[in-house]
Amino acid sequence: MIANNGAGVEKHLVSQDGLIGQLAIKPNQGVPVTLQFSSDKAGMPIAIASLDGGEINGDNRRVLPTGKVLFVFRAAAPGLYRVVVQLPGEQHRIEFYVVDPDHPRKHARSAGVR
Length: 114
What we know:
With 114 residues, this protein is mainly beta. The protein is 0% helix and 45% strand. The protein is built from no helices and nine strands. The chain has a four-stranded mixed sheet with strand order 3-9-8-5, with no helix packed on it. Strands 4-7-6 form a three-stranded antiparallel sheet, with no helix packed on it. A two-stranded antiparallel sheet has the order 1-2. The radius of gyration is 14 Å and the shape is elongated.
């Protein structure tokens, strides 16, 4: 996954056992997300859904010929949002953490985040 965090820094996260990782973002920040799959998955149907609310925009219902899937995630309220990405035979989960500007976290979660 390639996406910019709340500070505008481009992050590259890799799926490990189906968990892509966590990205801290600002409230109401529209986050363009690029998922990269191998080109042999081109044309495969894909489903993207948020388990905890938020908004997912993008009309990709299939993996593009380049192996990419593009969408935008946005959520207003602070907290954790889990997004599930499902292809035939595989599933991945992305976590977006919307920071509370009035109560910022002291330490970011580092598991799987680079």
